[in-house]
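Reminder: ligand-aware prediction takes two inputs, not one.
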Amino acid sequence: MALPSDHAPLAERVEELLAAGGPLPIVSAGDPVLRRGTEPFEGQLEPALLARFVEALRATMHAAPGVGVAAPQVGVELRIAVIEDPAPVPDEVRVVRGRVPQPFRVLVNPAYEPVGEGRAAFFEGCLSVPGWQAVVARHASVRLTGQDEHGRAVDEVFTGWPARIVQHETDHLDGLLYLDRAELRSLSSNEAMAERWAQPTPDEASAALGFELP
Ligand code: ZN
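Here is what comes back for the chain with zinc ion:
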């Protein structure tokens, strides 16, 4: 008897996903795969398959569009994520949020720890929670350790918006969604964001919606 596909070995599951071609379907909040956490990557995918999977994650991120995608968001319970942010924002936003361009990176077995005491609170969203954004206070700077897609060790400090992206994507690999860390009173639809909360900081939203900023 055939096993259901979501119980197939990871490599088979990834082959199935890639067989469809194009961007991968993104699972939405409510799917347990987003809550189960992930296995460390230890060669479960052969190098050629890993390369194809990473390329598919990248295409999925571009198509969404988003600035990061974690493997569980396409239903794969492996500790792998991709990030990339061209940061197409006005200068005043770039300066206040530290949203500098982040080149494409593959995070394999990432973990982070805070660097210093600084916190930064801004609206963020998630491809698995479409249509909504909320303010999350995160470490302003983090040290990221892990590997890249070639198995080389990574040990690097991220600050500003790239630090936010790294924390968001690494959290996915631990079964966490940004809403777990968010100020829930800040929860805003994309429409409300566009109409009301496009300012560089969430200060006005904090006053109007009644939530704390660090
Ligand atoms: Zn997300």
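The mean pLDDT is 95. Helices lie at 10-19, 47-63, 91-97, 160-173, 190-196, 203-209. We will return to this case in the review session.
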